[in-house]
Amino acid sequence: MELAHDDLGVAGRQLRHFGLDDAALTDLVWSSLDGIVFQQLALGRIATSRASLERLRGILRAEIARAASDPS
What we know:
Blueprint: H1 2-17, H2 23-43, H3 46-69
Helix pairs in contact: 1-2, 2-3
């Protein structure tokens, strides 16, 4: 459980580094990554995992761009 909490903290720090200081987004990203890893390792769905990860990256790129352009 402690390792999972550490991973969540790392995800939050990385998102804040890119200007995304949002606890709900951190939870969403961490949960998504956890699910993608499960999907790949337990279910053997490698292609689906890759597609999901690329989609998550696209969403995060858009959020980073939005945060960078937001003057507040």
